[in-house]
């Protein structure tokens, strides 16, 4: 009898323990689900398109790819450094004598149609202009002109071409830079954008200078300029970056300029991990830091905007932390990000430039050993994980 009662007590105790364990697990799962729900935010959703663009013709290769722009027909334009950043093993077919049947350097300027086919490919030294030592930045304006910058050691010029590669205009001259208050020349330009409403051009100037310069796109004449907070630029050495101190001058490089529909200018002070916002007359409005403790190449590389009329969201490439940040434009609050370091689709190695087409799709380029352009397909607004999404693979269809 005693043994029977002991056995019964053991069975009851085990059942109670199992019930209690199930209850604890159930509560834990509910809490975890609630926590997961709390970390979701409403934001644009993207999926990488691993099949875009199509392979380049003639076994051509890209070098460091350091500019992207989308024209009025949703053609995607890139600029890359080509032979400057490809090693001899990669360029085997174009060496003298050739060492292999692969490969050749692609022309510096390439345009893809929406399907990913190459429709334009040109660029390099020519009559009447000074081709940069090192390319940086591309912009196709509303009139179909293609603007290029250069950030080589002595590059102080920007160039304007037709879509077919016909030279139109040069502003500034190679080797002539006289500092951040030079009214004639630039200082290793990073990016250019043209305002079709006012017919003014804005130049992130740049890797040598510490300013945002404004030009007349028809003549190339520099009209005005300013530094951080709208201050007069000062080229005094700044010393190492201190995340605790908001510097009163830009740090090289002044890496991007983006113009929103409402006329606000967004300027990337890359190695200060910040974006400053201005009116087009140089009046400072506000600044926001992103991943402020990021050292080395910094966290704010380039900016693009969502395609809704209010441009509710902005996208920031961060080539040091290897992700694209999605930010509410009015408050500058970061909602989420996607991407991570690596070589596979939706991973990045030096994610550099960014542009958005009329459908809201994102295009990014990669510098250093990344050497490519990627497409991220816009899938609408919905709930995504806050903070960091990692890679954004296409969803499997049911």
Superfamily (CATH H level) name of the largest domain: TolB, C-terminal domain
**Largest beta sheet: strand ordering:** 1-28-27-26
Assembly type of the chains comes to single chain
Outline type:
globular
Nearest-integer average pLDDT: 92
Distance between the termini: 60 Å
Beta-strand fraction estimate: 35-45%
CATH T-level fold name of the largest domain:
Neuraminidase
Q: Would you list the SSEs in sequence order as H and E?
A: HEEEEEEEEEEEEEEEEEEEEEEEEEEEE
Biggest sheet character: 4 strands, antiparallel
Distinct helical segment count: 1
Task: Furnish the topology, listing elements before pairings.
Layout: H1 2-38, E1 40-49, E2 60-61, E3 65-70, E4 76-80, E5 104-105, E6 109-112, E7 118-122, E8 135-140, E9 146-150, E10 158-161, E11 167-171, E12 189-195, E13 200-205, E14 211-215, E15 222-226, E16 254-259, E17 265-269, E18 274-278, E19 284-289, E20 302-305, E21 313-318, E22 323-328, E23 333-338, E24 340-341, E25 347-348, E26 351-356, E27 362-366, E28 372-385
Parallel strand pairs: 2-5, 24-25
Antiparallel strand pairs: 1-28, 3-4, 4-6, 6-7, 8-9, 9-10, 10-11, 12-13, 13-14, 14-15, 16-17, 17-18, 18-19, 20-21, 21-22, 22-23, 26-27, 27-28
Question: What's the gist of this structure?
Answer:
The chain has one helix at 2-38; strands at residues 40-49, 60-61, 65-70, 76-80, 104-105, 109-112, 118-122, 135-140, 146-150, 158-161, 167-171, 189-195, 200-205, 211-215, 222-226, 254-259, 265-269, 274-278, 284-289, 302-305, 313-318, 323-328, 333-338, 340-341, 347-348, 351-356, 362-366, 372-385. The protein is mainly beta.
């Amino acid at each position: 009898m005693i043994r029977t009662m002991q056995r019964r007590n053991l069975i009851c105790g085990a059942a109670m323990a199992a019930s209690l364990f199930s209850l604890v697990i159930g509560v834990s799962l509910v809490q975890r689900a609630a926590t997961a729900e709390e970390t979701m935010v409403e934001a644009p959703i993207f999926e990488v398109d691993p099949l875009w663009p199509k392979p380049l013709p003639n076994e051509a290769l890209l070098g460091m790819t350091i500019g992207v722009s989308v024209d009025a027909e949703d053609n995607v334009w890139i600029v890359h450094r080509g032979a400057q950043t490809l090693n001899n093993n990669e360029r085997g077919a174009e060496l003298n004598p050739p060492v292999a049947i692969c490969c050749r350097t692609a022309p510096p300027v390439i345009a893809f149609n929406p399907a990913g086919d190459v429709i334009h490919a040109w660029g390099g030294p020519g009559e009447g202009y000074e081709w940069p030592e090192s390319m940086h930045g591309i912009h196709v304006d509303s009139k179909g002109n293609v603007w290029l910058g250069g950030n080589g050691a002595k590059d102080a010029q920007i160039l304007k071409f037709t879509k077919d590669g016909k030279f139109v205009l040069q502003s500034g001259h190679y080797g002539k830079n006289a500092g951040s208050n030079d009214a004639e020349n630039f200082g290793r330009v990073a990016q250019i954008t043209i305002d079709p409403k006012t017919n003014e051009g804005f130049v992130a100037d740049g890797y040598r200078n510490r300013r945002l310069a404004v030009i007349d796109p028809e003549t190339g004449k520099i009209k005005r300029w300013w530094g951080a907070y709208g201050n007069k630029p000062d080229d005094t050495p700044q010393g190492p970056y201190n995340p605790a101190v908001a510097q009163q001058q830009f740090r090289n490089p002044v890496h991007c300029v983006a113009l929103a529909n409402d006329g606000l200018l967004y300027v990337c002070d890359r190695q200060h991990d910040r974006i400053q916002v201005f009116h087009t007359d140089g009046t400072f409005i506000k600044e926001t830091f992103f991943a402020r403790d990021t050292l080395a190449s910094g966290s704010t590389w380039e900016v693009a905007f969502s395609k809704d009329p209010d441009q509710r969201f902005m996208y920031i490439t961060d080539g040091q932390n290897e992700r694209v940040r999605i930010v509410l434009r009015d408050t500058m609050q970061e909602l989420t990000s996607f991407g991570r370091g690596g070589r596979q689709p939706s991973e990045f190695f030096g994610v550099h430039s960014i542009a958005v087409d009329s459908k809201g799709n994102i295009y990014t380029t990669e510098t250093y050993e990344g050497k490519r352009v990627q497409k991220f397909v816009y899938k609408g607004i919905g709930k995504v994980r806050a903070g960091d999404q990692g890679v954004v693979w296409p969803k499997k269809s049911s």
